[in-house]
Specification:
Elements lengths: L2 H11 L4 H11 E2 L2 E2 L3 H8 L6 H11 L4 H9 L18
Antiparallel strand pairs: 1-2
Helix pairs in contact: 1-2, 4-5
């Protein structure tokens, strides 16, 4: 399955759920770039498979420096725990 087909399936699965759509986008966009050609990107923008919201957010996700792209890149980062969680006993209440 290529990335375009993956996005069409993702668009159908997340038609009315923005959080789910961004999770799908997060899987194809990382800090190293996007594995799409310009021809594929134009095909996605002009497709009837995507809702207007999906088209706009996809366009913003592909644009370097956009807020949407920064949000998706931040979702891909691993967050290290800042402090250990203390085990609680029955008398710590």
């Amino acid at each position: 399955m290529d990335y375009v087909e993956y996005l069409f399936i993702a668009a159908r699965h997340s038609r009315y759920n923005a959080a789910r759509w961004f999770r799908y986008l997060r899987k194809i966009i990382d800090k190293y770039g996007i594995a799409f050609t310009q021809e594929q990107i134009n095909y996605l923008y002009n497709s009837d498979e995507l809702t207007p919201f999906q088209r706009v957010s996809l366009k913003a996700a592909f644009k370097e420096g956009s807020i949407t792209r920064q949000y998706l890149l931040n979702l891909n980062q691993i967050i290290a725990p800042t402090k250990p969680v203390k085990a609680r006993g029955k008398h710590d209440r």
